[in-house]
Automatic annotation (TrEMBL):
The gene is hemC. PANTHER family: PORPHOBILINOGEN DEAMINASE. One of its GO terms (molecular function) is hydroxymethylbilane synthase activity. CDD domains: PBP2_EcHMBS_like. The keyword Transferase applies. The porphobilinogen subunits are added to the dipyrromethane group. Pfam families: Porphobil_deam, Porphobil_deamC. Monomer. The lineage of its organism: Bacteria, Bacillati, Bacillota, Clostridia, Neomoorellales. Keywords: Porphyrin biosynthesis, Transferase. Tetrapolymerization of the monopyrrole PBG into the hydroxymethylbilane pre-uroporphyrinogen in several discrete steps. GO terms for cellular component: cytoplasm. This is Porphobilinogen deaminase. Residues 225-295 form the Porphobilinogen deaminase C-terminal domain.
């Protein structure tokens, strides 16, 4: 019997890299495996002139792939975990998460600046409310400009629009062999990453035992546990791309350390806290950390964010 998988992915260069990484990893485990790559354009790929927070929809980069999974047109969907909603269709599951790449955010500056050395009122490109809130908390003078598109597109826009820099994910630049663009790796005490940032996830049908067995070699347990903890934190706070929430899990042996952040859109209110737990029960740590921040007032902050419908509030 032929061993074959139909792999679904978005069309971007980075998404294709991720899908090819999954295929290469599986072929090392199963040399006889045949894989077919199917690429789809998602809603988030089609709408590039509007900030994600203003589109007001979940699953912007996953819905089309999930529909293809449910209809049996593909066997697995490869995602950037930061794009995956915390609530999945009932028939689907995140079956594996690969070893996580560097989850940090980075500054790419045209003149090699760091955040500290940027001139007053420097113009930086990012559409992420999470990044904006944390950067404004640290440097309220910055002018943060909405910027979307794939990595090469954002870098080109930086030059074309004369921005002082852009904020990007380290993982994407590393995977595309573009790390030489990085001016500064942003420390976590300034900018915690998005939930799941740097992690590649594989979604499959819950009842497809054949596929679930095949993709087991992809799963990196510490990365899986950390991302599950972060997603549980986000789920408890009912967050998404429309709210400034960040989290980072780190595994040290069987111990899981989870840090989380909730902020107002302008960064003036910002709460951070830490929770520890077990790699074997990662979601419990996420739930406890969310409860801790809600007790400190995160609920009121998030309610204010949702009422404002995006945009900087002064």
């Amino acid at each position: 019997m032929e061993l074959k998988l139909v792999v679904g992915s978005r069309e971007s260069e980075l998404a294709r890299w991720q899908a090819q990484w999954v295929i290469a990893t599986l072929k090392r485990a199963y040399p006889e495996l045949k894989c077919e790559l199917v690429t789809l354009k998602t809603k988030g790929d089609k709408i590039l002139d509007v900030a994600l927070a203003r589109i007001g929809d979940k699953g912007l980069f996953t819905k089309e792939l999930e529909l293809a999974l449910e209809e049996g047109r593909i066997d697995i969907a490869v995602h950037s975990m930061k794009d995956v909603p915390t609530v999945l269709p009932p028939s689907l599951t995140i079956a594996a998460i690969g070893r996580r790449e560097d989850p940090r955010d980075v500054l790419v500056s045209r003149r090699g600046h760091t955040l500290s050395s940027l001139p007053a009122k420097a113009r930086l490109g990012t559409s992420s409310l999470r990044r904006k809130a944390q950067l404004w908390h640290w440097r309220p003078d910055l002018e943060l400009v909405d910027l979307r598109g794939n990595v090469p597109t954002r870098l080109a826009k930086m030059e074309k629009e004369g921005l002082d820099g852009v904020i990007l994910a380290a993982a994407g630049l590393k995977r595309l062999r573009m790390s030489h663009w990085v001016s500064e790796e942003l420390p976590y005490d300034i900018c915690l990453p998005a939930v799941g940032q740097g992690a590649i996830g594989v979604e499959a049908r819950k009842d497809d035992g054949r596929v679930l067995e095949i993709i087991k070699p992809l799963n990196h347990l510490p990365s899986f546990a950390c991302v599950q903890a972060e997603r549980a934190f986000l789920r408890e706070l009912e967050g998404g791309c429309q709210v400034p929430i960040a989290a980072l899990g780190r595994a040290e042996g069987n111990c899981l350390i989870l840090e989380g952040m909730v902020a107002s859109l302008d960064g003036q209110e910002l709460l951070r806290d830490l929770e520890t737990g077990s790699v074997s029960q990662p979601e419990e740590a996420g739930k406890r950390l969310a409860a801790k921040l809600l007790k400190r007032g995160a609920g009121a902050i998030l309610e204010g964010v949702r009422k404002s419908h995006g945009g900087r509030q002064r």
